[in-house]
Amino acid sequence: xxxxPSVELSGEFQEGDIIFDCPECGKSLAIDPRGIGxxxxxxxxxxxxxxxxxxxxxxxxxxxxxxxxxxxDYAEALAASQQKVRDQMLALEAVSKRRDYLExxxxxNLECLKTIKQExxxxxxxxxxxxxxxxxxx
Length: 138
Ligand SMILES: [Zn+2]
What we know:
By secondary structure, the chain is mainly alpha-helical. About 60% of the residues lie in helices and about 10% in strands.
């Protein structure tokens, strides 16, 4: 069983005490902040009552909600990151196209080299024939 914080109800208010009225009899009660949310017995009317959250906490909560990024901000942030993703996709596409182009260029160069090689063979054999003809004439 959890240890219950000592809760003291008193007529004398102390620094930091939660001050609230008993919802049954209306008596002003003061309680240690550790008593927040606890079920207690009103010393005056003996009703079982729950210690309320202090109003300043509610105000702080309301302020926190007010200052929290609105759903509009989230929508903007989401749109921004979606745009970023689109930009990266486009960049990737550009890189991919560039790669395809270079690959095509490489294949074309290979074809060109093959043709040159074939022509070299033709030239070489022609040179050989010329060389043989010159030697035959000597
Ligand atoms: Zn009471």
